[in-house]
Amino acid sequence: MSINVTLPDGSVRSYDHGVSAMDVARSISEGLARNVLAAKVNGEVRDALRPLPGDCTLQLLTWNDAEGKATMWHSSAHLMAEAIEALYPGTKFGIGPPIEQGFYYDIDLGERVIGEGDFAAIEAKMKELAAKKSVYQRREVGKADAIAHFTEKGDEYKLELLEGLNDGEITFYTQGNFTDLCRGPHIPDTSFIKAAKVMSVAGAYWRGDEKRKQLTRVYAITFPKQKELDEHLALLEEAKKRDHRKLGKELDLFTFSEKVGPGLPLWLPKGAALRERLVNFMKAAQEKSGYEQVATPHIAHKDLYVTSGHYEKYGKDSFKPIQTPHEGEEFFLKPMNCPHHCEIYKSRPRSYKDLPIRYAEFGTVYRYEQSGELHGLTRVRGFTQDDAHLFCRPDQVKEEFMKVIDLVLLVFRALDLTDYEAQISLRDKEDHSKYIGSDENWTKAEQAIIDAAAEKGLRTVVEFGEAAFYGPKLDFMVKDALGRKWQLGTIQVDYNLPERFELEYVGADNQRHRPVMIHRAPFGSLERFVAVVIEHTAGRFPLWLTPEQAIVLPISDKYLDLARQVAGDLKDSDIRAAVDERSEKIGRKIRDAELAKFPFMLILGEKEAAEGTVSVREQGRGDLGAMSVRSFADLVNERVREQLGGL
Ligand SMILES: [Zn+2]
Ligand SMILES: [Zn+2]
Fold this sequence. Notes:
Blueprint lengths: L1 E5 L5 E5 L4 H8 L1 H6 L2 E4 L2 E3 L9 E6 L4 H22 L4 E2 L4 E2 L2 E7 L7 H15 L6 E4 L2 H11 L2 H8 L7 E5 L2 E4 L13 E11 L8 E10 L2 H17 L1 H7 L3 E2 L10 E2 L1 H20 L3 E2 L5 E3 H7 L1 H5 L7 E2 L6 E4 L4 H8 L11 E10 L15 E11 L4 H18 L4 E8 L12 H17 L4 E5 L8 E7 L5 E10 L1 H5 L4 E2 L5 E2 L2 E6 L4 H12 L12 E5 L5 H13 L4 E3 L6 H10 L4 E5 L1 H6 L2 E5 L3 E6 L1 H15 L4
Parallel strand pairs: 1-5, 16-20, 22-23, 29-30, 29-31
Antiparallel strand pairs: 1-2, 3-4, 3-5, 6-8, 7-8, 8-13, 9-10, 10-11, 12-13, 14-15, 17-19, 18-19, 20-21, 21-28, 22-24, 24-25, 25-28, 26-27, 31-32, 32-33
The chain binds zinc ion (2 copies).
């Protein structure tokens, strides 16, 4: 008897019954087989060594697939557990899942405490065990036998996990001397793990319950090649150097105050000015694209959020209401600007000829985040969105999407973000019942987004089932200089708020219609965006954005007045220049200016003073020669115009 296996390219191959995904891989090429970590069979990730269930679709998963990676890391957690058990007999084990970067295992070491000093021994043991090429053997186990196994071993955590499982769904995996309760899947054998690094340990309550015992969470990461581990560690080192919290302090951009409160950033003058440049850039771009600025207050009556549905959904998790002396009146800090903008739309009757209407506001919003979740500028409790809401007719969705995509790409260009793709989130293919809005409108809008992205030449991934209940969307996934992914520039269609706020326009047919609402924020929040830009550029901002574009370095105090005059002249040409007023040697001044990341250094000595010029050095490029202050100003302004795409 034979089975038909359909591969991702659509080709169908025939195999004997009982064939495994690994056998299929081998029949294609030995090289491929060496890289197969797991298999996706009829959409389900399984062990590559398990026999295929019959006719099926098959995708072989390698290190290049997210699911392949996760399988490798989860299997590495078992390997680390085996190493820990060998080194510290009697250790009990909680759970060991893969995470975004590696994996962890929660363990109970009894009286023992482990720390950084123990990491090398664990890594060495993992390497030694991995080299044994132990197969991850899957075994179905009856519940009674499973309980007997872990009772004998004395591992109460596994016994507790077993309580939640039914007979018939319990599997064990064994590699070498270690057996774990696990539903899998796993990689074929331990030899795929070539490099291991224990990263850190932390306390973690069993099952996340602070009333239960605190276990030791051991974080680690593994790779199929030593070289990849080395690269990963180098990247982490670089990320540490670029941490926006560290650079934000060094560059005098922002600070936090215990008294003001956690998660509420305070912008220092240089940071506030930088923020203002971002705002002005976006305002100029939006003005060109037909947006109108609106302004709304920071609080709103509870009724607004009852209408919008946010009260029901987020009421408990948001900040406590603000009570006014009037009985029963409750106001909330605004968590988003959309409901306010709906009310502006509603302030007078609208005709189809008025649409699209595009309301923009740099709106500051407040959302409660637990203090443990707060992180620099990326997770805060108060932040400003470059928010806008477009109200349009269904037939205008595509054109509006194309315009917003242009705006987002303008931002990426100005910030030198060149590696991105668009993720389009659509409805579940099978089930359309959980979405609000008419099927006809959804179908049209989904197609409009796909077409808009295609016409703009974007690299796209389409995700079915990822749309919100209220509309499809397009997100940009941007890779920064370190290869980390950030979600930026969300464009979201919304059928819900127009319905809840009963927004209308009178159509050409003289009938009342619902407009489509589009939410979009190219920066997202200014806070998070600045954090991304700091880490992407390592604080070497593009010329148009950087706090100081140049520093004037007088060779001696004799030229200090002239230096100040040059900085003043540059200011008149809209160029931000500082003066190094210290009585240091010129060599020292140049070195310090390079360290402080000034894009340009203007050196001023006897020759320059006599000729009415400055000697220009550019960061990273060296000497540009002597030129008049006027020529230098033209050079800077020309570069800025180029970076801003002619804005
Ligand atoms: Zn497992
Ligand atoms: Zn919105």
